[in-house]
Amino acid sequence: MTDSYYLSDNKRPSLRSPIGSALFFILLLWITLLLVGCAPADPTATATPTKTPLPAGEPVIATAAATQATDTPVPPTAIPEPPTATPLPANIAPYTGKEVADISLLQNRPVLICINNDGVGRSAHYGLGKADLVYEYIVDGFTVTRITAIYQSQTADRVGPVRSARMPNIWMTQMYDGALACSGGSDEIRYLLKNEVGFPYLDMDIDDPSNTVYFSSVGSDYRTRVQISTDGVHRWLNDYLQTLQSLLPNEQNAERRVKIEEMISNLTRSWQRPAFLYSENPATFDAGPASVVQIPYPGGNSVEWRYDAQRNQYVRFQGGQVHMDNETGAQIVTDNVIVLFANHALTDIVEDSLGTKGVNIELYGFGDFRIFRDGRVYEGTWRANDESPPRWLGAGEQIVPLKPGQSWIQVVRPTDSITYQ
After folding, report:
1. pTM of the predicted model as reported, rounded to 2 decimal places
2. Where are the domains of the chain?
3. pLDDT tens digits for 72-87?
């Protein structure tokens, strides 16, 4: 399974090297200029995609900075460097701000898991309450949202339902320096994940087609059946490392030997990324009260968060329904709701057998945000790059502190009108 990928005759440099990173982003820009299509930004909804076979050639991607695909390329914008955050104590989780008993958990790279969020998949959500961070973002021709849950400070025995990777997973996994686990992906996305990116990617179709080694299967509905644990991802990482170490002594090809060495180094180096800033006390520069937050996602997937003053948390609704976590049997709650505005573009990546086009989201750079905590709203600008998760900058460039606990990051288009009161 894994050997078929690691032994492939791939001559491309690793993205973890400076040359590889530069070539990768040059490749993205070049293909952007050639292949951004002209499809409408909001087509009618399509059925849940089916998996496609492995690619035979180069990936075809587009990363224009418009909500609708366009033939006119947009020149890159200069990106200010995010401010440096003060390091947290060793026993404080970087993405919850809470103390952990086992600090070894915080030395591991975060685990990012792709989760189905259509109406059927949402009814089977499991284990979201144990994630440090949860991203929700638009995919598949602007028709539905998908979720990526990020786990580091807690383990989760069961997370799902797992679904396939999308372009935003590349950007978010890179900036958190995580390990990504999904059920598969389109030809182009899978090619990038298995051949070009600098982080480990666990693909169910390739690495565990029986769904018995790292993944598990419950029932027969492809929208809800696949699940995984954080332990399953870490076991795969260990197996992956052992496979590479066993290949290295007998590898005679110099280029392939260098590539294997880079992979081993990437898996064994210390994890380090800037943490978010946390405080039990809300900052005084808020923009007013906000007890109800409404986010107009497409396809009948609009989200509403309501502030519960007794809990001092936000409770979640989606599609007009209470959103439940089947692990707890209770409604999903969170401590921080972060609405992140970012440019979206329809690409020429075909995500399923129905021809649905993929959506790329610019998660690096800068844009507006709204942070909701303790019944108040904070306005400002986020900044991020491939080595730094977002910095939440409020009035006077002050970092907005989050409440210690879980955060949901709701990614929306700049033209989307969220409401709060």
Report:
1. 0.81
2. 1-421
3. 344 445 555 545 556 7
